[in-house]
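Write out the 3D structure for:
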Amino acid sequence: MKTTGTKAKLLFAKIIITFVLIGISLIVLLPLYYLLLASFTRMSHIFAEGLSLFPQFERMGIMNYITMATSRDGVYWAWYYNSLVLALMYTAGGLFLTSLVGYSLGVYRFKGRNLIFILVLVVMMLPIEILMLPLYNLTIKWHIINTKAGVILPFIVGGNAVFFFRQFSSGLPLELMDAGRIDGATEYGIFFKIMVPLMKPAFGAMTILLAMGSWNMFVWPLIVLRNNRNFTIPIGLASLITPYGNSYEILLPGAVLAVIPVIIIFLFNQRLFVSGLSSGGVKG
């Protein structure tokens, strides 16, 4: 009897938790639903009658998407291309460099190791606004203003990513490194052939975080980029709202398409994301 009662209580608790999570998910997805609905509705109907929770198919169509794709010489697609290239370069370069730094801090023992790690923590605690002026001066001196390199280079080695890889790699089995050395492998060979496969959860988690950080980056690209066709998606969409008029027929469908890459990246890395965050949080 007690076993049956315990099972019933567990089942009831699971049902309650499931309904609560479904409710939270619906609340989170409601703005995205309204955004998708508005992107297929004529702006004149939205401003005149508002946006209903239920789709009115007779007033919907792809006219906003056609306007977005053809207006201003297709500048939206230039913004999209810039964001994709920057996200790819920033994510790939960031994963490569921060994994090397975090791995070396977590695995090797050398003089000044703790000092370097403390400096990484200090950089993590600094507000980005403090770094804006010196970084802007550096981009001017290096002649990379209004370029993709000017957007990527100052932040490609992030303190958060270094800290995460350091925490994860500190729990790796060092015996494998000794076995690799016995087999004649170099330190780089040990890292890329032995340790990187073990660090897949960390790479999966940081791929999502770095890609989302690059895709949503706003303040620094706004400072560095000058040309309208060099803008990224966040800057380009923000430029559509001005005191002289708002281009909602481009803004709404553009915002819908801007969500797609982030969703794709998360779907491909969600399992590694969960396991990587849980592992990186308890190791070290």
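The first helix runs from residue 2 to 39.
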